Amino acid sequence: MIRSVLLLALRAIRRNVLRSSLTILGIVIGVAAVIAMVTIGGGATAKVTADVSSLGSNLIDVRPGQGPRPGGASESAAMFKIEDAEAIAREISGLAAVAPAASQPMQAIVGSANWSTTVTGSTNEYLQVRNWQLASGRQFTEAELRGGGAQCILGATVKKQLFGGQDPLGAGIRLQKLSCQVIGLLAAKGQSSFGMDQDDTVLVPLRMLQRRVAGNVDVSMISVSARDGVSTDKVQRDIERLLRERRRITPGKEDDFHVRNMQQLVSTLAGTTQVLTALLGAVGAVSLLVGGIGIMNIMLVSVTERTREIGIRLAIGALEREVLLQFLVEAVVLSSFGGVIGILLGLGAAAAGTVVLEVPFVFNPTIVAVSFAFSALVGIVFGYFPARQAARLDPIEALRHE
Amino acid sequence: MNTIPFERPNGPLIELKNVSKVYGAGSAATHALRGIDLAIGRGEFVAVMGPSGSGKSTCMNILGCLDTPTSGTYVFQGVDVCSLSRNQRALLRRHALGFVFQGFNLLNRTSALENVELPLIYRGAPAGERRARARQALAAVGLSGWESHTPGELSGGQQQRVAIARAIVTDPAVLFADEPTGNLDSAMSHEIMALLAALNDEQGITIIMVTHEREMARFARRTVNFRDGRIDSAHHSQEMAE
């Protein structure tokens, strides 16, 4: 019986291609919307996570002051010293590297080319904790670091602005009035998720920046990276305890520094995009539901339209359950077919969307399976009522129907 | 699964005893049939005549197992039809009856072959056998070569031939024809009637036909006249005498 009913349903669908395709339109759009939104959302999540990881996923930044928070400016707080960084490296376990750093906005000049950028003074550990690779050249030597030598490593943007296509290694640049020799080039990282150009930077030895530019011994940031497998939360607590001690903050008073843990940032950002994805998916699911109601609507209309046909079938000797099953199978075949088209369309839209938005295309088999199952389910649920309507027709009345 | 009604080969094919049909209840009740007695044997070709409202259509619906009487008994091939469920009556129609309607009632946008195949699909016949028997039935009504045409591409007479092919493809015990020529001009009507008479003559198919045209009724071997829900026996005997 199943085979003959399937045959009858397929013939009925084929008989009215236009109505059939209109019936599935809602499902197609609903499924396509869900697939596209969830896939693009998944790509955005992956991109954000990857971006933050490129900063160094085990990265913990410590800065003086209470940090950005709602409610206005924080109290000014004393800067760190190099000794603070040394104390962290010495007393806290589980660290891969500690890099004290200070930054200044400066003009970089080569010949007639002029570019304002941020100059950061730090140590070689800075490259490690910040996940910087050298594209060419070398790191600073011990002597350069200790003596505050006039050497610098350029970010890709600065190199492009000042040197264009030429090789800058060994050349001299001026940072305001200071002459500096280029010893290395950083590999490009591109924009961060926050829209900042990470490659717009010049790296110099920390002591050089302190002595010859800032004229002090301040450290405005200590970047720490935890070893793999070490809890960044624990490292954060240890640093907070150590710094409170060193800065003589009595219990009960707030910290006059703040610690930013990238791991937390990653999970916060990923959480945000996931919530957004879920929200978009929910919008898609609603349109899927509307599509289902569309199927019911058209199936109901088609029961009225096909009353005579149902009468013929009943007169010929179709059983009630055969008519019911035929209409149900029609609804399920249509909605599943709509689901397949919707999946293809959604994946296509997602592929285009990910290219436009410059996020990776992350294929999510779960959502594809779920939307297909859901569209078939929509067919069963919304097809049942019209099917029952059809099956219960009186053959005499149905045959008389105009 | 429902059991297919058991066939007893002896006795008349169709036997109505004191059959009445009442629509509605109380003062609004309409008596469509008032105690009909009718017996039809195997191989007969019966024309049912009468003015509209005489009860002939109601009687046909009951004979065709599409409707059940309010009182009285209907025995078909020895089976009491009144005792059957809706599904069992559907199975009886599927296996023993064929229908031809005034309005052809073919599935539109569906080829002649697929239309004729329809009852065989409900019977669960395998595809090869189904196609062969449908072709045979179409050939029997003179429509070889028209298999792939849809009703829209066929004349009224041809459409009715397809409908007849659909009715006989299952080798039914009885073919019911409800005003089969009602929508056709006289040339086509004669063609269809000649076809029905030939099917009755050559293949021995029992045919019960409703018509209001005396000219068409002449093709039948026996005429039953209805008037006010009763069989008009005067007319009956007159036709028998002819």
Please outline the helices and strands:
The complex is a heterodimer of chains A (402) and B (242).
Chain A: H1 2-15, H2 17-54, E1 59-64, H3 82-91, E2 95-110, E3 113-122, H4 124-129, E4 134-137, H5 142-147, E5 151-154, H6 156-163, E6 172-175, E7 178-186, E8 201-205, H7 206-214, E9 221-226, H8 232-246, E10 257-261, H9 262-305, H10 307-316, H11 320-357, H12 365-391, H13 395-400
Parallel strand pairs in A: 3-8, 5-7
Antiparallel strand pairs in A: 1-9, 1-10, 2-3, 2-6, 2-9, 4-7, 5-8, 6-7
Helix pairs in contact in A: 1-11, 2-9, 2-11, 2-12, 3-8, 9-12, 11-12
Chain B: E1 14-23, E2 30-40, E3 45-49, H1 56-63, E4 71-76, E5 79-80, H2 86-96, E6 97-100, H3 112-123, H4 127-140, H5 156-168, E7 174-178, H6 186-203, E8 206-210, H7 214-217, E9 222-227, E10 230-231, H8 233-241
Parallel strand pairs in B: 3-8, 3-9, 6-7, 7-8
Antiparallel strand pairs in B: 1-2, 1-4, 4-5, 9-10
**Poorly predicted runs of 5 or more residues of chain B:** 1-6, 236-242
Strand percentage of chain A, roughly?
15-25%
Oligomer: heterodimer
Chain-averaged pLDDT of chain B? 89
The gross shape of chain B turns out to be globular
Helix content of chain B: 25-40%
Radius of gyration of chain A: 33 Å
- In this structure, how is the largest beta sheet of chain A organized? 6 strands, mixed, barrel
Cα-based radius of gyration of chain B, to the nearest Å: 18 Å
Largest sheet, spatial ordering of strands of chain B: 6-7-8-3-9-10
The averaged pLDDT of chain A comes out at 87
Taking pLDDT < 50 over at least 5 consecutive residues as the criterion, the unreliable ranges of chain A are: none
Calculate the terminal CA-CA distance of chain A, rounded to whole Å: 30 Å
**Helical segment count of chain A:** 13
Terminal CA distance of chain B = 48 Å
Largest sheet of chain B: 6 strands, mixed
Biggest sheet strand line-up of chain A:
2-3-8-5-7-6
CATH architecture identity of chain B: 3-Layer(aba) Sandwich
Output the CATH topology of chain B: Rossmann fold
